[in-house]
Design goal:
Layout (H helix, E strand, L loop, with lengths): L1 H5 L30 E6 L8 H11 L5 E6 L5 H10 L6 E5 L3 H9 L3 E4 L8 H8 L4 E4 L2 H6 L6 E4 L4 H13 L1 H19 L1 H21 L17
Parallel strand pairs: 1-2, 1-4, 2-3, 4-5, 5-6
């Protein structure tokens, strides 16, 4: 919207949300090198999150590749999703974990193989960043937020929204190639530290404010921190 109205990016800065990241993961993957896969998804059980697509993907994957899924979250579609899991015969493969503490979620990510995310509406998915920080590749759909977080082919795979076949294909690549999972997981951790850590956020904010102060000084403007009106000229 800014670019369309101003026709300039001179005053446009991108500062990502910053998260306190966990310590770098110690991942051996010793128990996951035989083609099986342990997946996690995190999100409200609501239509826009398309959890049902993930359940269907797990059903298709299990025809050839053993895999499990833990679903964190609650919402209006819990009963419908539970029924879908039962009808597909996946009660031993999929766990509806509900809402649990953040520490429990992070511990689970630390022991999983892949985060899978199928939302068709996701402004900025913090769960994807947390998964990358834990060394997990991310399989996600091309919602606006996911496209900014996941580097397709480097830290995970992006696919069209509502395309279950694409979710299956991307996840199968990771199931069949432990080395690829490790490479993408390592790249995800590096990207999380570089762009989405609390430290990266503060450095970027400092850069914005430093530039703003220099612009005011160059104009001979006095910055009065007691009056909000001085912010109108800040880039």
């Amino acid at each position: 919207v800014w670019l369309a109205r101003s026709n300039s990016d001179a005053k446009l800065h991108t500062v990502w949300n910053g998260l306190p990241l966990p310590p770098p993961p110690i991942r051996t993957d010793a128990g996951h090198d035989r083609g099986s896969l342990d997946l996690v998804t995190i999100g409200r059980l609501a239509p826009e999150k398309r959890i049902g697509d993930i359940v269907e993907a797990i059903a298709r994957l299990n025809r050839t590749t053993p895999c499990t899924l833990t679903i964190f979250g609650e919402g209006p579609l819990r009963d419908a999703i539970a029924e879908q899991i039962t009808q597909l015969g996946l009660n031993e493969r999929i766990q509806l974990a509900g809402n649990v503490s953040h520490d429990q979620v992070m511990a689970r990510l630390g022991n999983a193989d892949v985060l899978i995310h199928a939302a068709d509406s996701e402004p900025f998915g913090l769960a994807m960043i947390e998964a990358m920080a834990c060394g997990l590749p991310v399989v996600a759909t091309r919602s606006s937020g996911a496209q900014e977080i996941v580097d397709h082919g480097v830290t995970g795979f992006l696919s069209p929204c509502a395309d279950v076949d694409a979710l299956v294909s991307s996840t199968l690549k990771l199931a069949e190639d432990p080395a690829l999972r490790r490479r993408m997981g390592d790249a995800g951790r590096e990207r999380a530290e570089r762009l989405f850590s609390l430290e990266a956020h503060m450095i970027a904010m400092e850069k914005v404010w430093t530039e703003a102060i220099e612009v005011h000084r160059s104009k001979g403007s006095a910055i009065n921190t007691n009056h909000a009106t001085c912010a109108r000229d800040v880039p």
